[in-house]
Amino acid sequence: MAAATNPTTGAGTGITIGVLALQGAYTAHQRMLHDMGVATRQVRLPQDLQGLDALVLPGGESTTLLHFLQQGDFWPALKDFAATHPCLGTCAGLILLAQHVQPDQPSLGLLDVTVQRNAYGRQRDSYIHIGPSELPGGLLEMVFIRAPRIVQWQPEAQVLAWAGGSPVLVRQGRVIGCAFHPELGSDTRVHQLLVDACLTP
Ligand SMILES: NC(=O)CC[C@H](N)C(=O)O
């Protein structure tokens, strides 16, 4: 892990965060991390994981992501990386990190939650919710796009935000899962959780 020189932002920390760039909303994550002063690298091949401090698994379509990730040795390499480094999974990325997925599909099993895919409706049912959170400053704007719902969770998964009676932001050790899209907008607090996880020994 890199030494912190400015723990309130990514600037000057020397950390590099990978963004899984196979499909989906990865450029918006890169832009947000860049604006926070954090170096990023697109991850398209298993060897791109080498030397990274953390990884973002973006939103998109989890079945399509799985299709690419199950080629060659990407899946075991990702499993090893995610078990040993901070990770932030948003929307489809949360589905990849979950312990159980409904309907059933392979997942990394790093967050003790069960997620139900597409539980908030179709693309046209996308909506913005403003709700309380445990993040510094409280209230959080959350963009939901065909989002998964966390329908079961274990106490190991610390809930940091709720919407409509369900957890929508959870953290388990250095793994963070988020049902909404924190990369769309200018609020950096969810990404800051990932940066902070990199800087925590
Ligand atoms: N915005 C998103 O990432 C949607 C997730 C998608 N519905 C899936 O099941 O993978």
From TrEMBL:
Q: Name one GO cellular component term.
A: glutaminase complex
EC numbers for this chain:
3.5.1.2
Provide the top EC class.
hydrolase
Query: Which residues carry out catalysis?
Result: 91, 181, 183
Q: The organism sits in which domain of life? A: Bacteria
Q: Where does L-glutamine bind?
A: 60-62, 117, 145-146
Q: Which reaction does it catalyse?
A: L-glutamine + H2O = L-glutamate + NH4(+)
| Protein name stated in the entry | glutaminase
Keyword DNA-binding tagged: no
